[in-house]
User: Fold this.
Amino acid sequence: MFELVKSGGWVMGPLLLCSVVATAIVAERFWALRKQRICPRNLVEQIWQWAKAGQMDVMRISSLRGSSPLGRVLAAGLMNRHYSREVMKESIEEAGRHVVLELERYLNTLGTIASISPLLGLLGTVLGMIKIFTAISAVGVGSPTEMAGGLSEALITTVTGLVVAIPSLMFYRHFQRRVDELVSTMEQEAIKMVEILHGERVKESDMAGGGAA
Assistant:
């Protein structure tokens, strides 16, 4: 393995570094972007229970803020629950922008790795071809050994660049899609909370209870 890396030339160093960074980002984002961690279920229902019981205090809102990214967004709206619907929505949107930035953390780096890895591989290919032509000009075409080093460098760096770039691009697209889905879920939950607290939406449980009566 070491000989393979060595034969690829100095370009293999940046490519291996890119592969390590990309692997770390993928593992971290898989852990950080779990739906249960970002958007726990029944938060809006819990808030509704607090509101009905008159238990909406600063301590509970602080606990909600620290529980999850969705909790932070909802807590921003609850801090302004005594104001108009528009004020609540503005505070939620402001908190949501900060949360989205956290959800997209490291994704730009992953996308950059997916973009530059093929270019690094191409650079290695060009350097390998330069070595081949240099060997030809020095000793002619009758010495395959002299040309083998440049040829191996060209092929190995090309393959390595693609091996790093293709999974990086796939995971980059995957995490972008996951972030979009999580943001959509948070928006729906925030709108639901605002409408419930302002009496513009009837709770499903209340509707079921009313129907049973």
